[in-house]
Amino acid sequence: MTDVAAINQDDVIDVRAMSKLRWRCRRGLLENDIVIDRFFKKHAVALTLRQAQGLSDLMALSDGDLLDLHLGRQDIAQINAALAQDDVVVEVLKMLKEKPERLP
């Protein structure tokens, strides 16, 4: 049994937890899947438990709301005021919105 007090939220998530998170992040809209796939390609190796929870909180949104966030049609406060107050959710949303790196 894991000692909850020993868990550091800034630890990088393990392989099993990453696999579960990727599964949880699968969406019904291809556009959302593309953005999320790009996020994992860029951030998976250094994703912390805290950030994983923030991403999981964002995945509770509907596909339409998530797409509106990606496209900038709405901001997080318009969709969910409680999530807008969560610094980790805001941090992860910024990570999701990062532009892809250009190929040489």
Structural summary, described in words:
With 104 residues, this protein is mainly α. The chain has a single domain, classed as DNA polymerase, domain 1. Helix content is 61%, strand content 0%. It has 7 helices and no strands. Helix 3 packs across helix 7.
Give a brief outline of the structure.
By secondary structure, this protein is an all-alpha fold.
CATH class placement:
Mainly Alpha
Largest sheet entry: none
Rg calculated over all Cα atoms: 14 Å
- The number of domains is 1
CATH homolog superfamily? Flavinator of succinate dehydrogenase
Through-space gap between termini: 48 Å
Given helix and strand content, the structural type is mainly alpha
Overall 3D geometry? globular
Helix/strand order: HHHHHHH
Which fold name fills CATH's third level, the topology? DNA polymerase, domain 1
Question: Which terms would index this structure?
Answer:
104 residues; mainly alpha; DNA polymerase, domain 1; 0% strand; globular
Layout of SSEs?
Elements: H1 15-24, H2 30-43, H3 49-59, H4 63-71, H5 76-79, H6 81-84, H7 87-97
Helix pairs in contact: 3-7
